[in-house]
Structures are given as C-alpha cells and as structure tokens.
C-alpha cells in the first residue's frame, strides 16, 4: 500500500498529472495531499475514497490549487471535514457521500461550485435541509443528485422543482418524510429512486395524466 512518502515522490516527479486515483489508500494523510495540490496543478480528476486521515485542510488545498479540477471523489473519509475553504468554479462532479460533514462544507459548495452537474451527499446525516436547499438553488446545472439518508422533507422536493431544471436522476434512499404525491409533480423525465421502489413515469401514465400532471407541476412551481 502506498505511503505518504511514496505519494509525495510521485506528485513531485509527475507534476503534469491530470488523473489520479488513490482510493482505498487508507494510510495517507494531509501531508501527501497538500504536496499533490502544490505539485499537480493540472489535475482534472482526483479520487481518494476512504482516505481515513485526511482533513478539510488538505481538501481546501486541493480545491484552491487545482483550478482545472472537474471531478473530486472523497467518499467515506473518516477525517475531520467540518469547514472547507472551497474555490473550485470548474468542478462538475463532487462525491462527498458517507462523511460526517457539516453545513459549512455544503454552503461552501453552494457559494462557489456553480458548474456542478453531479453531487452526492448520500449518508451525510449531519447536514440540514436548509443547506441542502441552498446548494440546490445555487447549482442550477445539476443533472444527478444523491440525497439518500439525508434528513429532508417536501421542502427539498419543492426546491428541486424550482431550481433543478436539468435534473435527470434523483436518489432519495431512506428519505421517509417525502410524500409520493409531491414526487409525482416533478418533471416526469426525472428518474427517481427511493427506499421502497424505483419510480419512473411510464409512457402510458405520462400520456393519460398529462393534463393533471401539468396542473400539479404548475402548482408546485408557482411559488418559485
């Protein structure tokens, strides 16, 4: 398994890297990630799932130094990721699922990552619905949104209807405070997954209920 020392040597030698995947290298720390941030400024895709010892310090370095970054995956990292100074305007793919992050991280994403198309917050049980709604509101290009096991309600669905006009996939695994009736008022082209079943509009349902759906959709978005 690669160590901080080995990773630092790679980063300093291969400083034109555009793609790097060090997922499951559980012994790495902020030291090597900061070296990567300082040496590999051309990075466009960076994946380091299950990096147990990283903190928001190194993540801030990555996001602020690698300005060409398009994809970032930090799933299930056990380090302290509570407050991140994010400046990554080109980021399109961000998976931070299964982390104990707070609202500060989500708000930072909302305030700077306007180009996001894919966002996975699944399993982030400490973030509030308010911050989730903010990131939905300020990231209008979202096409894929994962909110499984998040504490959300119909308020989030209404925000999605108002703001996520490009959404194609929505995961609501174990989100039990959402009414099925409200889900059916979303754009029928959205593929919705929830805890009990996969809900999609069939062609026959869409055709037979077009007028009702349009009325429902209007009522859902009329207050946007």
From TrEMBL:
This is F-box/LRR-repeat protein 15-like leucin rich repeat domain-containing protein. One of its GO terms (cellular component) is SCF ubiquitin ligase complex. SUPFAM superfamilies: RNI-like (SSF52047). Residues 199-224 are annotated as: Disordered. It comes from Diversispora epigaea. Residues 34-182 form the F-box/LRR-repeat protein 15-like leucin rich repeat domain. Gene3D superfamilies: Ribonuclease Inhibitor (3.80.10.10). GO terms for biological process: SCF-dependent proteasomal ubiquitin-dependent protein catabolic process. Residues 199-211 have a biased composition (Polar residues). SMART domains: LRR_CC. It holds the Pfam family DUF7885.
């Amino acid at each position: 398994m690669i160590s901080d020392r080995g990773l630092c040597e790679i980063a300093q030698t291969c400083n034109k890297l555009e793609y790097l995947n060090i997922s499951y290298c559980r012994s790495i720390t902020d030291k090597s990630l900061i070296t990567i941030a300082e040496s590999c400024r051309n990075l466009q895709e960076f994946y380091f799932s299950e990096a147990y010892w990283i903190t928001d310090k190194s993540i801030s370095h990555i996001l602020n130094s690698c300005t060409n970054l398009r994809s970032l995956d930090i799933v299930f990292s056990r380090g302290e990721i509570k407050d991140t100074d994010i400046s990554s305007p080109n980021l399109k793919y961000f998976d931070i699922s299964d982390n104990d992050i707070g609202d500060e991280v989500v708000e930072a994403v909302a305030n700077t990552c306007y180009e996001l198309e894919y966002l996975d917050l699944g399993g982030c049980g400490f973030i509030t619905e308010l911050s989730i709604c903010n990131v939905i509101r300020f990231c209008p290009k979202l096409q894929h949104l994962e909110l499984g096991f998040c504490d959300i309600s119909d308020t989030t669905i209404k925000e999605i209807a108002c703001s996520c006009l490009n959404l194609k996939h929505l995961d609501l695994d174990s989100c039990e405070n959402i009414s099925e009736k409200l889900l059916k008022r979303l754009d029928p082209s959205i593929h919705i997954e929830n805890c009990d079943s996969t809900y999609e509009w069939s062609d026959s349902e869409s055709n037979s209920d077009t007028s009702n759906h349009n009325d429902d959709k209007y009522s859902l978005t009329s207050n946007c």
